Amino acid sequence: MPARIDAERGTQPLPSWRVVGTGLTVRFVCAPCNNGWMSELENRVKPIVLRLLDNASTNLTVEEQTTLATWSVKNAMVFEALRIEQPWFFSAGERNAFRESLSPPARTNVWIAKCVDQAGVYSCATNLSGTVEGSSMRMEAYVTTMGFGALGIQVVGGKLPAEVPLATTVTVDQTPGPWDDATVRIWPGPKQVVNWPPPIGLHGELGLEAFGDRWGPHQD
User: Fold this and answer.
1) Reported pTM
2) Residue 134: pLDDT above 80?
3) What is Dmax (Cα atoms) for the chain?
4) Is residue 218 assigned to a domain?
């Protein structure tokens, strides 16, 4: 269906434009990658995404969760090319390592959610950083929230100083909400089959905005 695209680059709104079918070309990926491993990944994830968009109850195997999470992280890395702020959260080294291993970077988490009354495409990203409570240690975080019709996806990447062991657990404030019932974490996954959809759905664009704003310090 024809649509009108509204977008911001950094904090600057762009003139809206009309398209027939929702699409956005990001001239950031070389042809060998676009036509090679990325195309293969798209072919593997397509039947999974179509099943989730079918509005029917289904299950996701561990392998399907991994494929969907990998595709979601790839999208987050490509979408960051729309940012004007530098440096980007994902480094060139992390992107190359991801291409070679098809495994998300350390301290990356991926959730999926059911969207209700959301027919279009949605994407928003937030670059967060802060000080770990009780220390002077800084932590970076980058949140990419995407909506593809009835499927909502969120990729959250975190970075701590290199001397911090990867096994260190870091907790981040969340806005109050039914997130345990509205989302399913697929990376790192539970290593078992998960049910879809979750009990609670996100309503329209406002639901996706709340999904994207759930992380970070908030006042009661």
Assistant:
1) 0.86
2) no
3) 52
4) no
